[in-house]
Amino acid sequence: MAFRIYCGALATDGRRYPHQALVIDKGRIVAWEPYDPAHTAGIQPPDVDARDLIALPGMIDLHVHGGFGRDMMEGTPEAIRAIAQRLALHGVTAFLVTPLTAPWHAIRRCIEAAREVRWNGTDGARVLGCHMEGPFINPKRAGAQPPEYIRPPSVRELETELGNLINELRVATLAPELEGAREVIQYLTQEGVIVSIGHSDATYEQTVQAIEWGARHATHTFNAMRPFQHRDPGLAGAVMLHDELTAEIIWDNVHTHAATAQLLIKAKGATRVICVSDGATGVGMPDGYTFELWGHRAVVQEGAARMAETGGLAGSTVAMDACLRHCAQTLGLEVASLVCAANPARALGYEMDLGTLRAGACADVLLWNPHTQKVEYTYIDGVLHDPHASLAGVPDPASN
To answer: Which of 95, 151, 217, 385 is spaced 20 to 30 Å from 57 by Cα?
Structure first.
């Protein structure tokens, strides 16, 4: 049955439109209908009265490892589905399962589980594929990636260890300055995988070379990469300057200062930056909560996850709604919706179906409360995500 969501406003594709009713039928957005707020007293089910809320396209997280006490590297469909259910409560309607640097058998198991969930679906956010972060990274910029499992880039090893699971990869992070990287970048690009430069000590010149080989993305810009300096612009400088690269940013105000996030958007333009959560097991968990990144202990302290051994950051403790909030508070909801929804959809080639509220797109909608700065409701394919549904044993998240 078709229904309407009467919104105080909707924001999509970089613009805001006041007093619109979204018409939804069979899981798709059919049209927008402007309404007079003085003449809507008779809104009746199945229509939805959301006149105090703002409709935004569902967010897409291209880089998330887990959350709410669960880890994608558990390698089970149940773990991924449990995380997907919680992500939907935070306004995420699609995501990439992100295995980290680990033994190949563990990476395979994670990708196999993601494939099963992509085929059979979830009760929450949809799986679009995988973002393989490592193992072809630079030990000097390992960050929280387990250093003992870092491998030199090798097409032969990639083919041997993954086989047809390569078809599940949408993004792969690697360090282009390493021997063998050129062949891997060109191979992955030919396979339709977006090559992302990250956990890398690449110079400016090496980054430009990687772009020529086919790299088109940058992993959590400024984190775990050679920084910008005025005599050595480095990888970070190349990311800001070259339009060929889309740039991830973890806007949690821990990994990245708000002014730095603004600088990146100003340098690249609002359509070339993508907010990601880089959420780890500690998302939504209280201070003192401990978890492991493949044998290395991390702990949540003062709202940040840190490695017990080094004190370095161990992924974030926020979901995408925090990134949306931080961006919106600084640059407005119009820009926030671009970097959290439209841009990741475009990067993956889903711009006609996801990340937008245009007519014809999937009815993936979040309703944002401008007063509390939180997600109130999430619709996926026009179906309201039920926060009271079974959550597969996932603990209740703490407030972010």
So the answer is: 217
Query: Which CATH superfamily, name and number, covers 59-348?
Result: Metal-dependent hydrolases (3.20.20.140)
| 123: annotated active-site residue | no
In the structure encoding, which two tokens stand for residue 326, read together? 């931080």
Where in the chain are all domains bearing CATH 3.20.20.140? 59-348
Question: Could you say which of 71, 201, 252, 278 is catalytic?
Answer: 278
Q: pLDDT tens across 229-280, in order?
A: 999 999 999 999 999 999 999 999 999 999 999 999 999 999 999 999 999 9
Give SS3 for 217.
Answer: strand
Take residue 273 and report the two structure tokens written for it. Answer: 């930056």
Q: Which residues contact 169 (CB under 8 A, 6 or more apart)?
A: 111, 129, 130, 131, 132, 162, 188, 191, 193
User: Which segments of the chain belong to CATH 2.30.40.10?
Assistant: 3-56+358-384
C-alpha–C-alpha distance, residues 245 and 210, integer Å: 10
